[in-house]
Amino acid sequence: MAFRDDVRRIRAIAWKDLTTERRSKAGFNSVAALGVTILVLFGFALGPDAQALRDAAAGALWLSALFAGVLAFNRSYQVELESGALDQLLQYPGPRWVIYVGKLIANSLFVGLMLIIVIAVGIALFQVSIPAAWPSLLGVFALGAVGLVVLGTFYAAMASRSRAREVLLPLLLFPMLVPVLLAAISASKALLVGDMMHEAGAWIKLLGAYDLIFFVATLWAFEYVIEV
Amino acid sequence: MEASNWAYVTAAYAVTWVLVLGYMAYARRALQRARAEYRRVTGHEPGEGDAV
Amino acid sequence: MTTAAPTVEAPRPARWPVFGAVSLAALVATQVFSFLTSPPDQNMGQLEKILYVHVPAAWVMFVCFAIVLVYSLRFLWKGREDDDLLAAAAAEVGAIFNGLTLVLGMIWGKPAWGVWWVWDARLTSTLVLFLVFVGYLALRAFVEDPQRRGQWSAAVGILGALNVPIVWMSVTWWRTLHQMPSSMRSMAKIYWVGMFANFGAFLLVMAYFIRRRYDAACTVRAAEHASQAAALGGLD
Fold it and tell me: In A, which residues are within 8 Å of C134 by CB distance?
């Protein structure tokens, strides 16, 4: 019974965050526009040679997603702080981790949607030809996005409530995401050229393990982070 | 090769000692500042019973 | 209840300066010993003498971060402020030794590999670890409330320590084509004696550093408690 209540609470929090985003739209639009802009800048830095662009496509895509994602995570708490809503949220009954899981779901949809836009633009701009193994590639993006969202949502709970949140979140988050970046970029690169060396599988396993480990760890640690 | 290696070895040990001694001095200064502040606030030496 | 009861006391000035002098003397002694006992290598010349400081610095850095992990967990478990202050002191000292390891690695790399930096598994994961703990220290600098600072940095420290093996694994796979640093394999026994002697001396220096930084943090907190109590019209 209690578990059903928790599920309802999670849904309520995710729905609340998504409704806020849907009503304003400005947040999502500007974050997605920033992701695309960074992608274009990478094109200027690496192009115009088509082969060089194709080689760097995976890295450029992931870095654009990373930079744009950072803004999304801070926003997710900033909206709460502006009206003192977080304090009220903490007053409601139910365990703290449901707040975290609710925000995770909302942020996953937010980042996932942004990623789709960035990928679509990236495929066009960087002249990537879609490989036969595109479902695996989609899986890599999903697993990488989960890792990004899990740690991003967790660290933003601290950074957004500190002084200097703009610099603190990337400073905390980026070094922690090195395995995600390496795994996601290497796996995407391998899959884009047909995965002749059969190395993508190991990277995908690493991504999955990373996601699982940090999902459990942040779920446990969130209570200590949000209650003070 | 021998001669050029010595330069790197010297540099390595110099860096180590500069860091160790520098950090030691920094830690010492920070501790003294903290103790001075403590004396100013409480009016007695650290460790002689706290104002609770 | 406006202020928590002080859980830290300003430590009495003790014999730690003596301990510091002894650990410095030990460091000098072990370095002289290892210099005198190590024969020049036929390939590397005198270069392997750098390893006497480089490798123990790396080991000490791991000891520091293990202390951060243990005391962060203990702080979240028991909630005693001194555990948090000790973890923070160990994190700072660990970052110092981490930086030293990186710089010494670069000084080793230039003559040995011909470049200051290679994206080798060890160097790269050491660098990532350094960045994680720079973030830890930055977080502490940006948060004033002690309870919040303690719980947040404990979470960051624990997750950072959890990440070390994953970073190591991912960077190793990423660099599978790279030849592993081979210097350690060929080393004679006498090198290891010097290495462990230096490690012992570094451990003493580390203990001294952590203790001093911890004492300073405790004194600062005790002074803050005292001035808060005075402002609230308590005793004094």
Answer: 171
